[in-house]
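Listing S7. Sequence submitted for prediction.
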Amino acid sequence: RTTMKSLRFISAEAFVSNAEFARKSLGAVAHDLFPLLFKASYLLEQGEVIHDLVENWPLFDFNIGKLLGATLDYKEDLSRRTCSVCLESCLTGLRDYVLNQSSPYMKKLKVVDLTGIKDVEVQFCKCKKTMGRWARTQLLSKLCSDLLVYLQQAQCNPGTFEVSISVLIDLFVTERNYELVVQALLKKCSCPLKICCVAFRSDNLTLQKFFYIIKLTDPSLLRKLEIVHNVHLEMEHLEMLFNCIHFPLLMSLTLPARTFNVRRFTATDEQTLTNIGEKMGEMTQLTELSLSFSVLTGRIQKLLSPLKTPLKMLDVSNCSLNHADMAFLANSFHAYHLEALDLSGHDIPELYPSTFFKLLSHCSSVLRSLTLEDCNIQDTHVNMLILGLSPCQKLQEFKFIGNPLSSQALKHLFSFLCELPMLKNVEFPVPRDCYPFGITYPIDDASVCRFDHQKYERVAEELNLILLQANRDDVKASTPLFGSYDAAVQETNNELGAYLIKSFKETLEKFTSSFNKMS
């Protein structure tokens, strides 16, 4: 698919394609052409030109999402290209903007917004090297620290110290880059490049380090907080966090697995849960909440009823919800505003079929993403599911891997899915008849790949043919056996893998020590 380019954009490409000529000529370029030249340089991966454009940026703001997004000159959105060459050139150009010896009166730049970059699975850049969120956090922190060292040692133009640029970024901090980010945040006041954390993701951090760094980020500016995987945050820690720190602008909150576990609740824990619900109720901007893999049986109402703003995204996958929880969700004011809903890991047809369909009916006019993985949806439930999904005309994404559906049932369901006009992405299960007879669901990790791959390929071709015959080649259908792509996990999987091995080794050593003492 070719995107049309204006004559201006074609001219800009021609100009930047000769890097040496473009760099020499920038001084004669009109200021309002810099955004056009930046996008053209990004498309052609002209790192040196990108660096010089940023180093000499003549405008008040630099918003990378807007610069790379659809424009009149070139409609294609390049913000999904996390090209390492381009982004590194961009950030080093920003550092050199500060150090550039031109008059401080020429330097107008006040705000740099790096939050518009989107990390996706498939990259189209020629270099094939990406710079993910973790690496962007690492590089910006390093540049800020290096900049301060240089300014303290070198004889700089006094005007350099008057430069003050707010750099909006989504930080991603793990054990490996923790010290570097802490140093950059501690010295923020002295540095001309001032890191402004809009979204914060932490993984593989001790609680002590998490609490320390979250205070340094200026939580009053935070819009998104993700505490995931190897941060052992439990309910009492969450209460402490909310009591110590206010998040007035927080719109999205993701909590790690097992934050809540009602199976071992005491009377004190019930009060703690009430307090957490009340604190979340004070977050008037909160519209996205992810609580996956916590045990919340019978407590959803206590946690969510204090919220004054309707949720647009709710992930309660594998939270052991009961009928009372589902009834609360179906009858709450949130139901009419939910654009993304994840109920994976619940036996919906067995536990609360009518309540679930009531919830689906209430959110049908706005629902864009629905995830029902490992929900025991069988062939006998497909007609009911089609009936429930029919009003969901805005649905863009439907994920239902891990359900025991036959090839025939999938074909029937796909014939219906073709009719949903906004649908773009479908994640479907390996058909039950591709597995050995007697396979039990949910399928464990050891057995998930033990299916007839040739038969699966034939069925997948037939399902794609159904889409093609309905002129729905715009729909991507796939079977990610081990879950959807997660850019953050993909980028740090080596560190997380090492952490898990270390944890396993420590557990084994403790067990062996205890066993030896018993002996």
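Caption to Listing S7: primary sequence and predicted structure tokens for the chain studied. The CA atoms of residues 144 and 364 lie 47 Å apart. The longest strand covers residues 193-202.
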